[in-house]
Amino acid sequence: MSDPPPPLVVRAGQVWWALLRLGAVAFGGLGPALALLDRELVGRRGWLTSADVRDALSYTKPLPGSTVVQAVTFLGWRVAGLRGALAATAGFVAPAALLTTAAAAGTAVLPDAAWVRGGLLGLQVAVVGLLAHSMAGLLSKEAGTAGLAAVAGAAAVAGAFLNAAVVVAAAGLGGVAMERCRRTRPGRGSSA
Amino acid sequence: MLELVGAFLLVGGLAFGGGQAALPLVERLAVGTFGWVTPAQFGVAVGLSYATPGPVLIIAAYIGHRAQGLAGAAAATVAVFAVPALAAVAAASAVQRLSTTRCLPAFGRTAGAAAIGLLAVTLLSLARPVVDVHPALLTGSALVALAARRAQPLLLLAAAVLIGAVAGLGAD
């Protein structure tokens, strides 16, 4: 960071409340959520700059986990340190967690009627379509090169026989090995 | 309960490529290994996690609730976001050191691509209970996939539930 962080005048409680409100309306995945975060934390509250939001995306993208939540954690840290990070994460996840838990409890007590079965079947039909749509999007965005597309294809085949965790971890290790092989330029200073 | 927490810690720790890319792992553990939900329930759970705001991995709350009630929902939710949140804190507090490391991005890129490929397996297992009812229902799925380029997922899900419920009433 080139600039020193601003003095910590924002309390964790304020961070929690702001992110709780965002968590209740963050529909539509990563892109819309980042736009919301920028509008609220940069535009409305002035706690951060748009550069912080860009940093949050680029530094958490390579990490495992839900990138939306990690961007929120990262931004919470930038606003108010560790307490801010925890408050932001807890606040952002809470609405979805409550809604999903309520829905789980609700579907468990639904009557065994024809309209209920039909509605749930409709949901499953739509989910297959939505997942196919987002898989196509993810393939072109995250596996755009021929090499990565081959990895995705091989994983699809391997996944029919092997444990999913093993496939993901093995692919990652393979990626690290390839990167080592091609590491011809020395890094900055000692990290060779 | 230990199995539940362990499973979702693993899911969070291996969710390279984002939350959606972790759905295959969730499916394998929750439907296959531990049998907390049936394949059809898993399909409903994915639908609900699309329909609610926030991350798709909130599916942990649904599966946790099915496995262990309210405590399970809370425990699975905390577990699935614990590793990613700690990693994000580490990234935020050590940004410069991390950005000069090339191994982690390399791991993430290929692991993420593999996870996306695995979605094909998940797609098949989600489609199976639908096909078991009637193969022609996949036409509806294809229509939703096409419409998803323009329309909000929540809207499409709501429409599908409504059509399904009305059709169910009619068939009754």
Quick recap:
The complex is a heterodimer of chains A (192) and B (172). Chain A has seven helices and no strands. With 192 residues, chain A is an all-alpha fold.
Notable characteristics:
heterodimer, A: 192 residues, mainly alpha, 73% helix, disordered C terminus, B: 172 residues, 0% strand
Protein described:
The complex is a heterodimer of chains A (192) and B (172). Chain A is an all-alpha fold. Chain A has a domain at 1-109. Chain A has helices at residues 12-23, 30-44, 50-60, 67-108, 114-142, 146-158, 164-181. Chain B is mainly alpha-helical and 172 residues long. Chain B folds into two domains: 2-132, no CATH class; 134-172. Chain B has eight helices and no strands. Chain B has helices at residues 2-13, 23-33, 39-51, 59-93, 95-99, 103-133, 137-147, 153-171. The chains are: A mainly alpha (192), B mainly alpha (172). At the A-B interface, α3, α4, α5, α6 and α7 of A face α1, α2, α3, α4 and α5 of B.
Give me the secondary-structure topology.
The complex is a heterodimer of chains A (192) and B (172).
Chain A: H1 12-23, H2 30-44, H3 50-60, H4 67-108, H5 114-142, H6 146-158, H7 164-181
Helix pairs in contact in A: 1-4, 2-4, 3-4
Chain B: H1 2-13, H2 23-33, H3 39-51, H4 59-93, H5 95-99, H6 103-133, H7 137-147, H8 153-171
Helix pairs in contact in B: 1-4, 2-6, 3-6
